[in-house]
């Protein structure tokens, strides 16, 4: 059917379609033009991550402060992981989700005011503090689920119907009121007629006439419900998704990969700046280790090795001065004992096997105590790294079997108490929930909606009845 025929069939007058009265660019579509809290959080790509990080660092949050923040996020229905006072990827994701739902700029880092706001929201979630915890979680979830958090007016109306006194009720009313006063009478009348017809053609006709109209977001949302093949106008470009992922990883490899794929993108300069910072940090730590090794050996060769590796290093002048001193005091006979040569080699490679071989060959050397001490340090570092790696793996899996495996491998590990506490929580949840484990896992994966979540489900439950659904989602997200 032609659009003209659609208008006549729907009872719409052609005079109602008045493009001259369409809302100006930037008034409502995509949320620009509104500055009320809770409507359109500034997308993460427009927040300077380094400035946000510096602002949070300036707060000098103690570990107890961080535990409190993680507890507040948990009480509001977010998942920051264990309340251990360590802000890892899961905590940053939870902060970003809370910022997005509460209308704050999305960065994953907190400002002083946001710490207060988060504390206030958690207080309101407590019994006697406003809504109950479960009601507030449902409230916030519905606010996001309806699209109200992204500025969808229809979503706000649905939200007010269910939660007339909800957490975002004032924000929703103000936004609806602002829209009603700004939208032209012709557009409002045309939109009512389109809603009465409620067909894909009607919504497309509205979008042709008012591509940036006040109801454009609602039209797109309804179109996607009726016709899932409708493209999402708010879908983020690939380079923005990649940039957010690189910021989340905040590693040399992550930024290198981003620049390799998007060398001329809008965030390429920021990526290069951060990459330089990370490389400088790495060089500094390497340089310090090399300088300490040179001081320990205290030989001309060791100081020259330091200068060769770090010609612009901080300790170059000190190394040159020490070389001159050693040359002045150098004995005529330069022959060195065999154990001294072996000790230098062990210090150079600085590995467990190197010091083990040195002690095997020279157990009574004057350097033997130093070798044993360094050997203990390296073994301790190796165990600590394995402990940390196992703990991160358990946190990522966040399951009974994952934490049990961590405790089996590290019964006295650094995170033993946290693992046991989380294990009790998961077991209590499992006992109170009679649903099969694969069903609970499927619902959790579906709620998360990420490629990694579906892959984890397929790995943990390869014979579940939900496997076909999970595979379909993996294929869809891998495209």
From TrEMBL:
Keywords: Signal. Residues 1-22 form the signal peptide. The keyword Signal applies. Coiled coil: none annotated. SUPFAM superfamilies: PGBD-like. It holds the Pfam family PG_binding_1. Residues 63-113 form the Peptidoglycan binding-like domain. Transmembrane segments: none annotated. This is Putative peptidoglycan binding domain-containing protein. It comes from Shimia gijangensis.
């Amino acid at each position: 059917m032609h659009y003209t025929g659609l208008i006549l069939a729907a009872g719409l007058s052609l005079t109602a379609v008045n493009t001259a009265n369409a809302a100006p660019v930037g008034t409502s579509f995509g949320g620009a033009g509104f500055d009320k809290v809770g409507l359109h959080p500034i997308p993460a790509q427009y927040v300077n991550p380094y400035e946000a990080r510096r602002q949070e660092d300036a707060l000098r949050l103690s570990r107890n402060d961080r535990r409190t923040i993680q507890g507040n996020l948990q009480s509001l229905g977010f998942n920051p992981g264990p309340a251990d006072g360590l802000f890892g990827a899961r905590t940053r994701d939870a902060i970003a989700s809370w910022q997005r739902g509460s209308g704050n700029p999305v960065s994953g880092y907190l400002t002083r005011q946001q710490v207060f706001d988060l504390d206030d929201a958690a207080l309101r979630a407590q019994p006697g503090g406003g809504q109950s915890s479960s009601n507030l979680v449902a409230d916030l979830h519905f606010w996001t689920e309806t699209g109200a958090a992204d500025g969808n007016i229809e979503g706000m109306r649905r939200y007010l119907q269910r939660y007339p006194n909800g957490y975002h009720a004032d924000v929703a009313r103000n936004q609806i009121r602002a829209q009603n006063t700004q939208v032209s009478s012709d557009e409002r009348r045309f939109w009512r007629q389109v809603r009465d017809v409620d067909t894909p053609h009607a919504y497309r006709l509205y979008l042709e006439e008012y591509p940036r109209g006040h109801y454009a977001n609602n039209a797109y949302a309804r179109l996607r419900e009726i016709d899932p093949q409708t493209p999402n106008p708010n879908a983020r470009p690939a380079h923005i998704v990649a940039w957010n992922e690189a910021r989340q990883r905040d590693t040399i490899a992550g930024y290198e990969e981003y620049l390799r794929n998007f060398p001329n993108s809008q965030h390429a300069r920021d990526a290069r700046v951060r990459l330089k910072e990370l490389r400088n940090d790495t060089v500094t730590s390497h340089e310090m280790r090399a300088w300490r090794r040179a001081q320990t050996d205290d030989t001309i060769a060791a100081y020259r090795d330091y200068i060769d590796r770090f010609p612009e290093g901080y300790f170059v002048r000190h190394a040159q001065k020490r070389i001159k001193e050693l040359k002045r005091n150098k004995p005529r006979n330069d022959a060195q004992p065999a154990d001294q040569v072996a000790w230098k080699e062990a210090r150079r490679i600085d590995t467990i096997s190197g010091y083990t071989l040195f002690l095997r060959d020279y157990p009574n050397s004057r350097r033997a105590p130093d070798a044993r001490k360094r050997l203990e340090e390296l073994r301790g570092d190796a165990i600590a790294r394995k402990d940390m790696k196992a703990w991160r793996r358990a946190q990522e899996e966040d399951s009974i079997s994952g934490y049990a495996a961590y405790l089996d491998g590290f019964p006295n590990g650094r995170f033993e108490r946290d693992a046991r506490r989380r294990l009790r929580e998961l077991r209590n949840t499992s006992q109170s929930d009679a649903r099969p484990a694969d069903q609970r896992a499927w619902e959790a994966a579906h709620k998360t909606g990420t490629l990694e979540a579906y892959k984890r489900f397929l790995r943990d439950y390869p014979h579940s009845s939900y496997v076909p659904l999970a595979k379909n989602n993996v294929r869809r997200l891998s495209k």
